[in-house]
Design goal:
The two termini are 34 Å apart. The protein has 230 residues and is an alpha/beta fold. A six-stranded mixed beta sheet has the order 6-7-8-3-9-10, sandwiched between helices. A four-stranded antiparallel beta sheet has the order 2-1-4-5, covered by helices on one side. It is globular. The chain has a single domain, classed as P-loop containing nucleotide triphosphate hydrolases (Rossmann fold). α3 packs parallel to α6. The chain is built from ten helices and ten strands. 35% of the residues lie in helices and 27% in strands. The longest helix has 16 residues.
Length: 230
């Protein structure tokens, strides 16, 4: 497995947000993590990439224990997160944001990203904070790809976007996966996430309630009732 989390637990004060979960992502997989707001999905991603300190448990990436690795070290190893809300640098241009993504590797050529995201090429000199929500999400993805990730953690990439842009973002995520990047996707749009992924986990109240092949979860009555509106 490229990523393994074992007995991962996260607390905020006296509140347990993640309750000793086990989760794994194999190299080349696209795995989704779905659940209601407050289920612990974002906390799980942040604990995996070191943005918050897990109270207990193990995170193993590419065979290495990274449970206590400094957060700035992980992108250089290929573990990269695109946070909820995009996390771009709004005062920098598109071009400058991409350069920041390549910083860990001493710089890089954004040409491949401009080919993948032609709208960004048209706006390369534009200040990122003036982009539309969908364009900002494209920029967040492109900046992450500038780090040459092996594992991409995506937190709610469709949040706040118009339906047509949501479809476009999911197409881009599928394209990135077919290029060989392993993806762990947290997504409120459970149907779209499960249709995109090979495997899935369902998180409830900080725990993994269900896991399995994405198609099987799509057909699961509990999932259909709770998350697909059926």
């Amino acid at each position: 497995m490229l990523l393994e989390a074992r007995q991962l637990e996260v607390h905020y004060g006296g509140i347990r947000a993640v309750a000793g979960i086990d989760l794994a992502v194999g190299e080349g997989e696209l795995v989704c993590l779905i659940g209601a707001n407050g289920a612990g999905k974002t906390s799980t991603l942040k604990a995996i990439c070191g943005l918050i300190t897990s109270r207990s448990g193990l995170v193993r990436y590419a065979g290495e224990d990274v449970s206590r690795a400094p957060v700035h070290v992980l992108p250089r190893k290929g573990l990269v997160m695109v946070p909820e809300g995009r996390g771009i640098f709004p005062q920098l241009t598109v071009e400058e944001n991409l350069a920041m993504g390549a910083y860990a590797h001493g710089g890089g050529d954004p040409s491949a990203q401009y080919e993948r995201f032609p709208r960004l090429a048209e706006r390369r000199k534009q200040v990122a904070g003036t982009l539309s929500g969908g364009e900002q999400q494209m920029l967040a993805l492109a900046r992450a790809l500038m780090t040459r990730p092996k594992l991409l953690l995506l937190d709610e990439p469709s949040m706040g976007l118009a339906p047509m842009m949501v479809m476009k973002i999911f197409e881009l995520v599928r394209d990135i996966a077919t290029q060989g990047v392993t993806i762990l996707l947290v997504e409120q749009n459970a149907r779209a996430a499960l249709e995109l992924a090979q495997r899935g986990y369902v998180m409830e109240s900080g725990a993994i309630a269900l896991e399995g092949e994405a198609r099987a979860l799509l057909d699961n009555p509990r999932v259909r009732e709770a998350y697909l509106g059926e």
